[in-house]
UniProtKB/TrEMBL annotation:
Residues 1-27 form the signal peptide. This is Farnesylcysteine lyase isoform B. Belongs to the prenylcysteine oxidase family. Residues 164-427 form the Prenylcysteine lyase domain.
Length: 428
């Protein structure tokens, strides 16, 4: 049969948002000076969900009694959304970046209402996808696959809600048999942390103004999670070694491409992203960023990268790769500086950080059961997660859509690019 069609892209996992609010009064040019560059009250560098949210809240909270705030948003790419992106594989569109949203992410819940977007909730069959934990040689744990049949009528009966509920119950029982009460301890650990995150959604008037990120985390009781690894936190919470090394590791590798040695704070966010009630937006999550920018009355500059930000005393001057200059009273950097080469004048100190990149590979074809030591592709779980082992070439393989018995679309995460020879062995 024909070789699977493949589409590769690289997306940055765990991008950090550095937001600098530097407010100074506007300088008045001398009468003999040349005409000043275009002026704005606020310039935002980056049109991802961070930059678009900044524009939204600036517009929302700008005093109505003052002239309208002028906002410019600069994006080096030709589209908004940042890592919230989609990819088209053989004419079908799939989420490529931030693909799920948490029900307690109240900002995104509000965005959907404001922008009148349509929520796409997982179907019953998607909720009951089978899971397998692969150690490189065998599946150390597998759940039951959703039932199906080649006979249309029988297959329709097997898709009834009560059947999926039964499959879900069986899988929960299998989980409990293997991991015991540690599952409930993990759930409690995550719920406590999420409740602390929710404090940030309280009315702005009920919380202090934070001068630093450390102050913000300490106020919510989350700071200590940044000083310890996720493994240390989970051991103290009483989780079993098998749960930490298997299920929790699978989750952190899927969501952030990292092991349980990652930051406790990032680890909690990763675990929260594996719970129930997760959702996405019909047509792509990137629509949130696009909608916020559209309704915030901003001047959007696509394909324009900012190469320098100069503090000129009474204002900031931004210079772009297009040779343009812009004056700003406030400059907001809403993009990961680790990935850019912006020159700050005078220089500022930016701590060096090691970021984990995740490579996303899309394949339309069919998995090779022999690679997993199996005789039939139907024996391969819908989601193949992996334990922490440097020899394993991928973090996970997930079925995005089953087209027919001979073809599906898969999404693979890996820490390094997937070579074609490797893909040829995993797929047939």
């Amino acid at each position: 049969m024909a070789k699977p069609r493949r589409s590769k892209m690289m997306s940055l996992k765990l991008p950090f948002l550095l937001t600098l609010f530097l407010a100074l009064s506007q300088a008045q040019p001398h009468s003999d000076d040349p005409p000043p560059p275009p002026s704005s009250n606020v310039c935002v560098i980056g049109a991802g969900i961070g930059g678009s949210s900044v524009a939204h809240f600036l517009r929302k909270y700008s005093p109505s009694s003052t002239p309208s705030t002028k906002i410019r948003v600069f994006e080096r790419n030709g589209r908004v959304g940042g890592r919230i992106a989609t990819v088209t594989v053989a004419g079908e569109t799939f989420e490529a970046g931030a693909s799920i949203l948490h029900p307690k992410n109240l900002h995104t819940v509000d965005y959907v209402k404001i922008l009148k977007l349509k929520v796409k909730e997982p179907t019953a069959s998607e909720d009951s996808l089978s899971l397998g934990i692969w150690d490189g040689n065998k599946f150390v744990f597998k759940t039951v696959s959703p039932l199906s049949s080649t006979v249309p009528l029988i297959d329709k009966l097997l898709k009834l809600p009560f059947v999926n509920t039964l499959v879900s119950f069986v899988n929960s029982a299998l989980m409990f048999v293997r991991y015991g009460f540690s599952l409930f301890k993990m759930q409690n650990f995550v719920e406590i942390a999420v409740d602390k995150f929710v404090k940030y959604y309280e009315d702005p008037g009920s919380r202090p103004i934070f001068e630093t990120v450390d102050e913000m985390l300490q106020w919510a009781g989350l700071y200590n999670l940044t000083t310890r690894t996720l493994r240390d936190e989970l051991v103290d919470a009483g989780l079993s070694t098998s749960l930490i090394n298997e299920l929790v590791t699978v989750i952190t590798r899927i969501n952030y491409g990292q092991s349980v040695s990652m930051s406790g704070l990032g680890g909690v966010v990763s675990l929260a992203g594996s719970g129930g009630g997760l959702w996405s937006i019909e047509g792509g999550n990137w629509q949130m960023a696009a909608g916020l920018i559209n309704q915030s009355d901003v001047a959007l500059h696509l394909h324009e990268e900012i190469k320098s930000v100069a503090d000129l005393g009474d204002y900031y001057e931004l210079n772009s790769t297009k040779g343009n200059s812009y004056r700003c009273e406030v400059a907001v950097v809403a993009t990961p500086l680790d990935e850019l080469d912006i020159q700050f004048i005078p220089p500022i100190s930016i701590p060096e950080r090691k970021l984990q990149h995740t490579f996303t590979t899309f394949v339309r074809g069919l998995l090779n059961p022999a690679y997993f030591g199996l005789k039939a592709v139907t024996k391969i779980p819908d989601l193949v997660g992996t334990i922490e082992d440097p020899e394993l070439p991928f973090s996970c393989i997930a079925v995005l859509k089953k087209h027919n018995e001979k073809e599906s679309t898969y999404k693979l995460f890996s820490r390094q690019p997937m070579a074609d020879t490797l893909l040829d062995s995993i797929f047939r």
